[in-house]
């Protein structure tokens, strides 16, 4: 009992223990902040990266794509309907995006998607800007440019958009979101500068030629400010031209001239992953397939080639085990290849042989792994710093033991054992660790919860003090979630580290010879 | 009629200290027997080994040669745990410089030996009774009103009373006192001595080291340590 009694008494009467508590507190708070921010960063990244793909992806990694995807889709639904939900083909290619009104040009990655099925296999719809505020208005079908105009002295959009926005306002529960919308810089004048709709002298109308829609990655054409807001310089419906190079099934460029696709900007997409938002544009799958000559093309022998895609996204039914489904669908794919018999040409067979069924994690692994390694590295660096705390605790307890040598002698004179005295100091160190951990977790958690407010305050004091630039990280705010498992884990390690730090001093205390200690003054 | 077997018996105890590189033999075969209820005083010149012998009798130090028995048991043949139990239950120490624990108040200082012998759970059961017993002990030594005071707030005589109370709280068979009045003035020292004599009259066995012939005169028996051996005074 005396071990607990003295540990508690020393804890709140010895000033030196306070230094130990402070060092554990700071160390725990520091590690918790780093783990929470880095972990939050990684989780957000993973969630967003996953949101762009689907549970499983059939991909050959070839620009020219692979054929028979429609037949496989039907075959898969027949063989594995119990686990397969929605599927959606996607074509990936590269091109040049040009905005004729300003000669703005940029290399882009072009994704051909089916807007009816693609948002069902992932979170793409959530990334759309105009679709959020004007639900149902974003389409990749041919469209004209919407213009704003005056009606009863009020600037209004065409009726369909006005109604869509009214629907959103009525359904939106979050008053903050409505405030955010109202604060958007909806400059309508046809002058240079940020604007989202162009104004028209004839009032709110749809005008111009009809062109297919294009959804453009947020960072391809817009500018993200350091406060996280987005400046849009091209009004909705702007004409955009895509220049593409079709490729034959064998991977050679088709024809001598690249293909031009005239489109109108239907929306912009912000997935939150900069590498995607700064490169990708999305057009209609069938249109892109046709433009790239990946649809059924006439054969020299009078037949037609099989249409091609570069990916087939598969959303699994809820509750399906991802890796078990991957293995099963790999088997279905092998059966499917056998069922094709002699139908594929040599080039098509080559492409089919490259197809692999990957999970979304496999697809994003190089990307996520880099951040994971960064997290491990930072955690490792802070773990090294934590070793300093262990050494510090060791030094503090060495001083305490030296300082308490006479007390140790007295305790031994009244019957305390060597092990008991050593345990007393380990309990004491553990108590320092527990108190330090509780304070550290409290401070760290409060810091993480208010990290964005703290940054806002720093920016208010001096804009140069901004540490998290949303234009770089793509996230508007610093991740601010504290996981209980992280906090508990850090606390356990901190208490253990405190005890480890006190091991040598505690052993020395246990070995104190009572007669020598009583002479010690 | 033969003498009864001694309660505490040292047999030909040897002890040497190293002063730098020089070995200084302090005890060269000291033997001493203490009967139950006896009040024995050990005297001798400074550095003669009085305190060393007392420490060995209390199992605070180890002899190089010789044995010490308590109630017929060889203290140094047993395990360290047995010696720890002996220090906790069978003997109580009173030191010249009191050796109270500065962070604890008077009450806590007195009950520390009780704490030392208890597990966390057994203490939860026993604490009420121990507290009452400790308060009664403080009453007995006249310090009931000082229970919440820290040692730094007490006089020398009061501190020594607390030290005596601490030594007696586990009702040890033998009280070992090392110059208990050596740091006190004559009046206060006399009061402490009176307390020890009173305890002895109540049956407490006491072995005391002292320089003071006047103090020694109050004991049943006086022995002198000279040349590392005990000579009856």
Question: Which features does this protein show?
Answer:
heterodimer, A: 521 residues, alpha+beta, 2 domains, six-stranded mixed β-barrel, four-stranded mixed sheet, 20 helices, 17 strands, B: 233 residues, alpha/beta, six-stranded mixed sheet, four-stranded antiparallel sheet, 36% helix
Structural account:
- The complex is a heterodimer of chains A (521) and B (233).
- Chain A is α+β, with helices and mostly antiparallel strands.
- Chain A has two domains: 2-47 and 366-520, no CATH class; 87-306, no CATH class.
- Chain A has 20 helices and 17 strands.
- Chain A has helices at 2-13, 15-52, 69-79, 118-121, 130-133, 159-171, 175-182, 218-221, 274-277, 285-291, 322-340, 346-354, 360-403, 405-413, 418-449, 451-461, 470-473, 484-501, 503-511, 514-519; strands at 56-59, 66-67, 84-99, 104-113, 143-151, 154-156, 198-199, 205-211, 213-217, 223-224, 230-231, 239-244, 259-269, 280-284, 308-309, 311-316, 356-359.
- In chain A, the strands form four sheets. A six-stranded mixed barrel of chain A has the order 3-4-14-9-13-12. In chain A, strands 5, 6, 7 and 8 form a four-stranded mixed beta sheet that branches. A two-stranded antiparallel sheet of chain A has the order 2-15.
- With 233 residues, chain B is α/β, with parallel strands linked by helices.
- Chain B contains seven helices and ten strands.
- Chain B has helices spanning 50-57, 80-90, 106-116, 120-140, 156-168, 186-201, 213-216; strands at residues 8-19, 22-34, 39-44, 65-70, 73-74, 91-94, 174-178, 205-209, 221-226, 229-232.
- In chain B, the strands form two sheets. In chain B, strands 6-7-8-3-9-10 form a six-stranded mixed beta sheet, sandwiched between helices.
- In chain B, β1 (8-19) and β2 (22-34) form a beta hairpin.
- The two termini of chain B are 22 Å apart.
- The model of chain B has no long low-confidence stretch (mean pLDDT 87).
- At the A-B interface, α1, α14 and α20 of A face α2, α3 and α4 of B.
